[in-house]
Amino acid sequence: MTPILYLVIPCYNEEQVLPITAPIFMGKLSKLIEKKEISDKSRVLFVNDGSGDSTWDIIEKLSKEQTLIKGICLSRNMGHQNALLAGLMTAKEECDVTVSIDCDGQDDINAVDKMLAEYKNGCDIVYGVRDSRKTDSFFKRHSAQFFYKLLNRLGAKTIYNHADYRLMSSRALVELEKFKEVNIYLRGMVPMVGFKSTSVTYDRTERLAGKSKYPLKKMLKLAADGITNLSVKPIHLIFLIGIISVLLSLAGIIWSIVAHFLSYTVAGWSSIIAIICFFGGIQILCIGVIGEYIGKIYMETKARPRYIISKKTDEKE
Ligand code: UDP
Ligand code: MG
Description:
Layout: E1 5-11, H1 18-34, E2 43-48, H2 55-65, E3 69-74, H3 80-91, E4 97-100, H4 111-120, E5 125-130, H5 138-153, E6 162-169, H6 170-177, H7 186-193, E7 197-202, H8 216-230, H9 233-261, H10 269-302, E8 309-312
Parallel strand pairs: 1-2, 1-4, 2-3, 5-7
Antiparallel strand pairs: 3-8, 4-6, 5-6
Helix pairs in contact: 9-10
C-alpha cells in the first residue's frame, strides 16, 4: 500500500515566492508518485494565513489548473503555528502522512525522500534538522541558538536546529489534536506526542524571494510562548529567587540591628535606595512572569478556536 502524502504549507503574504516554490513542491510530489513511493491521491495543501496580498488568488488559480494542489484559507492572519495546525488537522482526514514545510523554499524538499524512508521504517514522526545555519544572518543564527538552549534549560524539550519541517503520520496527528491548548508551539508539543521518532538532516538555504515574515517581535513572541507553554520552570525559578532574597534581607535586618546597637547608624541614603530598587525590581519581575502564566490561563479558559477556515479550494462557489 502506497501512502497518501500531504505537503502542508502555510503562506502569509507570499505572492513573490509562491510562483517559484509551488512548481518545486508539485514537481517533488509528481516524482514520488511516478516512482510509486506515494499514492496518486497525494496533494500539496497550501494554507493561506489571512494574507493581505494576492497569495490566495495564486493558490486558487493553481488549484484550478493542477489536480495536485489544494488550498484552505483562514478567515484572518492567525500566525504561522495556527496556520500550520489548521493545515495538518485538515490534511489528517484525507491522508496517511503529512510533511509540513515553509513556502519560501528555504528547506530542502529532497529531505522528503529520507523522511518517507524513515516513515516506511515505522517512524510516526520524522524531524527535519538543518545541518548548519550558515545562510542565516549572524543575529538570527545566534538568537536562535540562544533560544534553543534557553528552552531546554527551562524544561521544554525541543529538537535542536529543528523548525517546522517534519513528517507526521495521521496517527500522530490524531493524538496531537488531543492537546487542547490555545497558545500553541508545535515544536515543543510534537515531541510530547511520542511514538517512534527520528531526525534527518538537510541544508537550509536562503529564502528564494520575498521577505521573512518573522520580524524580531514575532520571534520574541514565539520564544515567550515556547517557554511559558511548555514548562513551569520559570515559576520554580521565581520561588528560588524569592528564597534567596528572603535570606539576603534577613541578613540585612540582622546587620542593621547590630549596627544600631554598635551606634554607627549614619543615614545610608544610597544603600537604602539601592535595596529598595533591587527588591522593587525583583518583585516586579516576578509578578510579570506570574502574570504571563495568568494571561495564558485566561486565554485557555476562553477556549477560543485556534483557527477558522473560511474557504477551501474544492468548494465551488
Ligand atoms: N507564516 C504564516 N503566518 C505568519 C507568518 C509566517 O503562515 O503570520 C509562514 C510563512 O509564509 C512561511 C513560514 O510561515 O511559509 C515561515 O515564515 P518565514 O519564512 O518568514 O520565517 P523565517 O524562515 O524567516 O524564520
Ligand atoms: Mg523562511
